[in-house]
Amino acid sequence: xxxxxxxxxxxxxxxxxxxxxxxxxxxxxxxxxxxxxxxxxxxxxxxxxxxxxxxxxxxxxxxxxxxxxxxxxxxxxxxxxxxxxxxxxxxxxxxxxxxxxxxxxxxxxxxxxxxxxxxxxxxxxxxxxxxxxxxxxxxxxxxxxxxxxxxxxxxxxxxxxxxxxxxxxxxxxxxxxxxxxxxxxxxxxxxxxxxxxxxxxxxxxxxxxxxxxxxxxxxxxxxxxxxxxxxxxxxxxxxxxxxxxxxxxxxxxxxxxxxxxxxxxxxxxxxxxxxxxxxxxxxxxxxxxxxxxxxxxxxxxxxxxxxxxxxxxxxxxxxxxxxxxxxxxxxxxxxxxxxxxxxxxxxxxxxxxxxxxxxxxxxxxxxxxxxxxxxxxxxxxxxxxxxxxxxxxxxxxxxxxxxxxxxxxxxxxxxxxxxxxxxxxxxxxxxxxxxxxxxxxxxxxxxxxxxxxxxxxxxxxxxxxxxxxxx
Length: 471
Known about the structure:
By secondary structure, the chain is mostly helical. 47% of the residues lie in helices and 11% in strands. It has 19 helices and twelve strands. It has helices spanning 17-32, 51-64, 79-91, 102-114, 181-191, 207-216, 247-252, 257-265, 279-285, 300-313, 316-329, 340-347, 354-365, 373-379, 384-397, 403-416, 421-433, 441-448, 450-468; strands at 4-7, 36-41, 70-74, 95-98, 139-142, 149-154, 158-163, 171-173, 196-200, 223-227, 230-231, 296-297. The strands form five sheets. A three-stranded parallel sheet has the order 1-2-3, with helices on one face. Strands 4-5-8 form a three-stranded antiparallel sheet. Strands 6-7 form a two-stranded antiparallel ribbon. The protein is elongated, with a radius of gyration of 32 Å.
């Protein structure tokens, strides 16, 4: 049997952490078994579904690298198929039209709740309506079995039993003919030959209804795995205040996709004490049966730690591709400056996010208008005038503009003046970067280039002259 999993988001908002984890688990399970991963967009909620949300989901999946073999499929494109299956169920007596008014159903619900009963449809139209009310378009209900039970052998939760007496006759088509969620899911899972459904445990109560419908259609149900929800560190349901923003917000906040994937795979799953997992390791080691039954807690600090790890250890060219996006948001064309992979190598020890790295790297690509006031006061002092002038002269004559030669030049000036390296490097750093923080000065100048370094030293020399002129 070929394993076929699916991720089926509703485009009523952006892709969030919980959905991304479900997608990852489904993707990994298919990959591990050389199976097929399907993307299905469940867009039948026409009032709330938007093309912007669809595009956001597709963009997030692409950014995360969760490639799908089939899809994206859109449920709104399958309405003829849903009508075909609906008519078949009506003909076979496995579904029936229901003419009950909203008022009657509301009164039924209120009466049941007053008796402390579970609200459920009472089956008034189950055996047919002799005289259907004129002008009333009925809904269609599934004729759920009234005896026996439904056993869900959940891959995570274990055996869960639902009594059919607790399941009412679910509406599977609205009065305007549009199919409902549970029905479209059943038809699609059947038609797409889905073998394993991995989804949030908020769907567990839908599972017995869907299994009964699949049985009525003569289809074998897939295996189900219901993943526990994600909680905030305070034990409450994950919300925006815990960091439950859209996946693409993490991109915009400077996270690498592999850091987020690594974090997500550990939300409810583990392999010993291992914390760092490459995609290949996830694929090899992940097993949905090992997902924990208890909810996972979201920890932003852990995610930030992982992001810093991947920035520091990742392929510089790969990190550079993602850094380019953030420089672009700052209005910088990375092509008009030093090699971006070189910038990554120079900056990666000092950045937890790519936003931070981009902001720290602006001076490589764009001249600055002013110095950091505190750093300028501390380092661009009168005694630095002769020092920077000497360095400027040496730099202009330097045959090879590379880090090793620059280092030798700075060391020579430092030794000749009997100074410690910091006393030379800091004024030089403020002069070329605008502040007293940058990568090692030789690396900084090598990346900056002679063409930018000399004019910035000239500017610093003029600045020192102006601030030292007596009032």
